[in-house]
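Re-run with default settings, no changes from the original entry. Doing this only to confirm the output is reproducible before filing.
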Amino acid sequence: MQRKGEFFFKFLMSYIVILIIPMLVGIYAYDQTLDISRDDATQMNLAVLQQSEDNMNRLLQEMRDVVTQLSLDSDLLRLMLTADRAWSPQTLYQFSLQRKELNKLVTNRLISKLYVHLDRSKTILSPDLIARENELPLHIGNQPFDAWLHEMKQKDELNRFVYLPDVNDGAVTSNYMAYVGSLPVGSGGGDEATAILLVDEQSITNMLAPLLVHSHSFAYIADGNNSIVASASADGNPITPIGLPVQASSNYFFEDRDGRQMLITYTRSTENGWTFISGLPTSVVFSKAEFIKRINWTIAMTAVMMTGFIALLFAYRNSKPLLELVETLRESTGSTDLRHSEMDVLKYGVQQMIHRNRSMHVRMNRQLPILQATYLERLLKDGFHHEAERIQHLKEAQIEIFEDQVIAAVIQIYGLDFVSKDALEGQLDQTVEVITALNQMFQRGSYIHQVKRDRYVYIYSCSGGVEESSMMSALIDELSRIQQELRQQKNIVIGIGIGQCYPSSSELWRSYHEAIQALELIEPDAPSQLLAFHMIRHQDDQYSYPLEMELKLMNTVRTGDQQGLEHVFEHMETQNFQLRKLNTRAKLKLLLELEGTLYKLADQTRYALDDSILSVDPMKAMNADDRDQIYPILKSIFASMCSAARQKQEQQHESMLSEMVTYIHEQFTDSNLNLRRLASDYKQTESALSSSFKDHMGVTFSEYVENLRLDKACKLLTSSDLAIQDVAQQSGYNSDKSFRRAFKRVYGILPTDYRKAAQASPGGT
């Protein structure tokens, strides 16, 4: 009996332990839920704050871009310098044209106002008015606009963002954030002109609306001085800035505010130093955890009552068989085949996944040098016709080139002409020695690229702060040292040509072509087999128009890249008319080459050359003066062909947009029609399509589709007795709730009230 009682007590205790385990698991789950709830709330708030930060950064950058575009507007620059206070009819006409151009610049709906102040004529231009500076109905606080702007210039507060409270435009008083930039960009003092862009504070606070769902929550944006730029709270109370740690870029902490525990989340922008902060009551954060806590206690109490009786009964009845079962399991544990258990299968699968991922990573790392070599080859040949494309491809290939100063040096290994088995082994050794020597110069921003079996390009770049002459001198000294060491120690002869220094990798191709020219001009018996392009004494009887330059010219015209075309001609003019100062005979040969390229392009692009091209035939020119006039004519014809190619691309783009509009009219009743689907169907990015659609139609895609759907709904409401849910479905809305909300927002009344009003009117149905 004592033995049975002992077993009974043991198994009774086991049931109690089994009962305690779920309670401990529940307590652990509650604790984990606290952490998860806190992390979820923090991550959600950070996501909204970072999205707001991204939106603000894009907005601020777009404001800077608008000022930059204004600086590039030749008509506006002309008005800065020529327009005076006496507005002539011609000046007013130019003002009106410029006002229309200003309207095209503002594509972001968050930019409320744009003003351009012309200092010489004391004129204010904006998309909707032309006024003298003292007549503009705009007050910044208690100051008229002209007095405020004069004070900004006196305080040297241009080219920065400022907060403007109590701005009155004659009708409404609002708070704004403004960017005040001098024109042209870089002039600093704003003596010629000033651009002022205003963003309504309410537009900024609307970004923070998702953080204000719960009572007592708040959000605000603070500048680098911890002054509030924009703020909002769920209960409308004013917000006091919070002292934040200086080091952390984003984090969270708990703080008591007004007797209430709050979860404070913040993120700091690395671009402008602004901080985005949100506060959420901890009672909201941990509400899920409290709910789980109540469930755990309910389950625990129920389990205690139900299992207490079961534990007593089964502990007595099953003590002996359970004891025998435990002994049997203890004996059979050693023979259990664990390889077939679910856990082992899972472990095996995870191991296989890790192995495959590692193999994929190894393969990608092996392919990276090939990708880098491909993009460097395109960069040297200037195969990127758009700045964004060039930057994106270099980023994908993990190529880091400093954009301040770039130089290309071409290294030719002499003596690799004969290929036999023994010679090939020696040539490979020489190549390895040269690469090893060049690798000694490797540093951040520099790359070695093989263009031929016996030719390499060393790309050297550095950030600002180093003088071009010092940089070139250091590069020549280092390459000369390597050249001498290879010759003296390894008996390897190399020739080195060095191009000029340029301020961007987009012009690396120019330095590369110059390095090739320098290399080809090295005399075989010269004491130094190194020549920099700036050391060359150019001859006037040899023009520069290599095949690579002709191909680049043709590709630039075909793609409609007018800016790239200007760079090509600038390079050709520098090479032939400034450095070489070609004589009449060499200039004639160059013109004939250009004319041949022109005919090739006309044939490839099916561009119809008119009869006037015959009049610019260099061979028919009577004298040197006539020949000097031929080059500008040929250049203008190339520009016309480039413009025609660009116009063709734009026409295709317009045709695509018109086709999109037709497609929207056919599909707007489909609730799944959205910008992402349209962009996918037409192989466009959402951002590019959204901008193009607004430029083409004057409204955004969502506004256009909403207008179509609401027009359809109005017709159904007045001409049928369909239920509101059916009207919403046939108009393209996925629910009657979203339909009612959209209808109320646009028309100010609910659909049912609209139907009643239409039926009550004399012409109603």
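The two ends are 95 Å apart (CA to CA). The chain is about 55% helix and 15% strand.
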